[in-house]
Amino acid sequence: MNKWTANGEIFRKARQVGRPVPVHKVTTTWTRDDRHDVATDSVLGGLHVFRNYGLIQGHWSPDGGASLPTFFMGAVIRAFPASTSAGSTTVS
75 with 41: CB under 8 angstroms? Predict the structure, then answer.
């Protein structure tokens, strides 16, 4: 996540899964601390998505489909756009 936030890859990935970040929030000029904060918030949000959608609602199974790391990272990517609204990540 830190690498993806540094090079802008996370914005492309979020757009690919139907969760685009508003254009005015797209940046590769975040500070190291901002990237860390957004990555952490995204992983925590992804954990919530994975727990509720993947486990409780039963959309992930070890018996088939995406592997655990793939499904979890998909959840993290889906949680990313909300993370850009929460902190000090606005573009100056």
Answer: no
